Amino acid sequence: MLTFARRNPRIVNFHGIGVPARELEPGEASYWVSLHRFRDILDRIVCHPDRALVSITFDDGNISDLATAAPELVGRGLDAEIFVLTGRLGQRGSLSVDDIAHLLRLGMRIGNHGYAHSDWTKLTSKQLDAELVASKARLEEICGVPIHSAAIPFGRYNSAVLRALRRAGYDAVYSSDGGCVDTLSYPRPRTSIRQDMSDTALDNILSGQLQPTQLLRRNAAMAVKRWI
Ligand SMILES: [Zn+2]
User: Fold this and answer.
1) How many other CB atoms are there within 10 angstroms of residue 27's CB atom?
2) Rounded to an integer, what distance in angstroms lies between the CA atom of residue 200 and that of residue 39?
3) Distance 116 CA to ligand 1 centre (A)
4) 25: CA distance to ligand 1 center in Å?
5) Beta bridge partners of 150
6) DSSP calls for 59-78
7) How much distance in Å is there from the Cα of 60 to the middle of ligand 1?
8) What's domain 2-227's architecture?
């Protein structure tokens, strides 16, 4: 089981880099990583023997995606998929429409993180459509290309959320369940990077070294969320 996991892709997810330029939500601060640590993590990815298996995403559409992270990524020949909240576009500390165009020109990809950073499991089907359908249409208008990927806010989903995502035409959906990715998985688990993560924890994430018991636990938790 461990060998199987090691061959699979792994996705590291960032939220904000450096100093936030907006007021943070409760519990959000630990997901902001210093520029120094961010550079260190990117250097570890670039030098890693499994570099080709590691991909990078960003959630929440913070201005630091462009102002701070993008130059570091481009300078190392890396790219990322940036999941944007359309309800925050142009607000202080968040990406604007022009910033998204800039990120696309730099070779980054754009996906939907919804409109209002809501817990999608708590929404009515009409509210969910606004997060998944209207927000997707807005991003398609901005980017000029179809948007087929979404990152689930707070990693919270259930069978109704997954059905709505499929109905709205999302081929790739990303959660925060941790560990390696089975490419057929819906959603695809990612590991969110926190400032306080140890070097050992980080190395395990990049190497896909989830212990068999951890993998079993994660898969069981994902199965429950898909089913409820
Ligand atoms: Zn988020």
Assistant:
1) 8
2) 17
3) 10
4) 10
5) 112, 173
6) ES-BTHIIIIIHHHHHHTT-
7) 5
8) Alpha-Beta Barrel (3.20)
Ligand 1 mean position, distance from CA 151 (Å):
8
pLDDT digits (tens, 9 = 90+) for 21-61: 999 999 899 999 999 999 999 999 999 999 999 999 999 99
Residue 113 alpha carbon to ligand 1 centre in Å: 7
Tokens of 106: 């730099």
Ligand 1 center–CA 177 separation, angstroms: 14
d(CA 79, CA 26): 29
Give the separation between CA 64 and CA 145, rounded to whole angstroms.
23
Q: Give the pair of three-digit tokens for residue 161.
A: 């959320």
- The values of phi and psi at residue 200, to 5°, are -65, -45
Ligand 1 center to residue 203 CA distance, Å? 24
CA of 1 to the centre of ligand 1 (A): 31
- H helices of 106-198, in order, are 125-129, 135-143, 159-167
Tens digits of residue pLDDT in 72-117: 999 999 999 999 999 999 999 999 999 999 999 999 999 999 999 9
Taking each helix axis from N to C end, the angle separating 97-105 and 135-143, rounded to the nearest 10 degrees, works out to 60
CB 205 within 8 A of CB 218: no
Question: What residues contact residue 161 under an 8 Å CB cut-off, 6+ apart?
Answer: 120, 121, 128, 152
Query: How remote is the CA of residue 161 from the centroid of ligand 1, in Å?
Result: 16
Spans of all domains in the chain: 2-227
Q: Distance between CA atoms of 12 and 16, rounded to whole angstroms? A: 13
